[in-house]
Amino acid sequence: MALETITIPLETYKCLRGHLEKANEIFNSLGMAEGLASESKPLKPEPKQTRSQKIEKYKNLIGSGQRVKKPEYLKK
Fold first, then answer.
1. Which DSSP symbol is given to 31?
2. Which of 10, 31, 38, 61 has its CA 20 to 30 Å from the CA of residue 44?
């Protein structure tokens, strides 16, 4: 495969360079490393609540009047 050379005006080159830099900024803001999706940063999952944390959360909701009763899966 032979390399071919083309000539473009300097104004067109600057315009294309500007678009390329802007696209790189957008990809980097999305957490993509150098525009490659395979190297993107993984999202951190939310930590799971323990049963005692869930019960305490619902006690606070019931006490404040935001919730009337416990959900079925938290009842004994």
1. T
2. 61
Whether 72 shows a pLDDT value over 90: the answer reads no
Q: What is the pLDDT of residue 35?
A: 47
What would you measure as the largest C-alpha separation in the chain, in angstroms?
Answer: 77
Q: Which residues pair with 36 in a beta bridge?
A: 33
pLDDT tens track for 4-56: 888 999 999 999 999 999 999 888 888 755 545 555 567 788 889 899 998 89
Which amino acid type is present at position 33?
A
Helices in 1-76 by DSSP H: which ranges?
A: 10-29, 51-64
Q: How many CB atoms lie within 10 A of CB 61?
A: 14
Helix (H, G, I), strand (E, B) or coil at 29: helix
